[in-house]
Amino acid sequence: MNKKTKLTKLVLSLAMLGLMSGTAVAEELSGTLAKIKDSGVIVVGHRESSIPFSYYNEKQEVVGYSQDYSNLIVDAVKKELNMPDLKVKYLPVTSKTRIQLLNNHTYDFECGSTTNNLERQKVVDFSDTIFIVGTRFLVKADSNINSINDLKGKNVVTTAGTTSEVRLNQINNRDGLKIRIIAPTDHGNAFKSLETGRASAFLMDDALLAGERSRAINPAEWKIIGEPLSYESYGCMLRKGDTQFKQLIDKTIANAQTSGKALESYNRWFTQPVPPSGVNLELEISPKMVELFANPNDKALD
């Protein structure tokens, strides 16, 4: 066998090895990444009115702090699968529908304002934390309401299907406050109940309350009050046991947080005017968030 023949065989062998290696990589895909690769489509869940996390702007585009993470994850999936032209579809979800629609494979992941807690971990998985909130009340600025004890026997609104609804029911029953709870399906309608006087207070995550206040005709008429009833961590939600997809998502989030990209996103959405009304939410970053960005993790806070 001459040198030329040997070289030709070596090149062919390496080429075949490359093809086999590529096939092996494709076969190693599992869960959501395999689904996306096969279908050529990634379906992204999002919220419609969770200002400033995930909502529609005046052009009906999905924008927000959580959506910034979502966009980074989509880009990471495109790179991982070598599919730069991957088709991206967006699906609006609510607090009540988001888990069911995820688990029946209607969409692939969601970054919005979804709390990572131990109860939900029984049926879904969560990424590294993207935000830490305190659960508080929004009330009229000229009211005499300063804590939950001032709401005894009054109407309080909170969004259905949220951890805030669960927490309010627990405290109401435990302490015999006789609060009448109103629970519409989204944050926008919950705030309308407060604006129209149907409720004396709106219980929700403080950052979301700041977002709803920013949409008011006169934001100065409303104030966020009280010590947090709880602290909660938001994570992007994905199907349970999807280790391969979770690793990709966690790596993407951790890179954004340790590189400073996540801080830029935070400042854009919480310390500067945001659409659609151009109001500044004026929420300086908390020590808990600073610690999170320095040490990304997926811990639930309950």
What does this structure look like?
The protein has 302 residues and is an alpha/beta fold. It has two domains: 29-132 and 234-294, Periplasmic binding protein-like II (D-Maltodextrin-Binding Protein, domain 2), CATH 3.40.190; 134-231, Periplasmic binding protein-like II (D-Maltodextrin-Binding Protein, domain 2), CATH 3.40.190.10. Helix content is 41%, strand content 22%. Strands 7, 8, 9, 10, 11 and 12 form a six-stranded mixed beta sheet that branches. Strand 3 (54-56) and strand 4 (62-63) form a beta hairpin. Helix 3 crosses helix 8 (243-259). It is globular. The termini are far apart. It holds the Pfam family SBP_bac_3. Keywords: Signal, Transport. InterPro entries: Bact_solute-bind_prot3, Solute-binding_3/MltF_N. Belongs to the bacterial solute-binding protein 3 family. Residues 41-273 form the Solute-binding protein family 3/N-terminal domain.
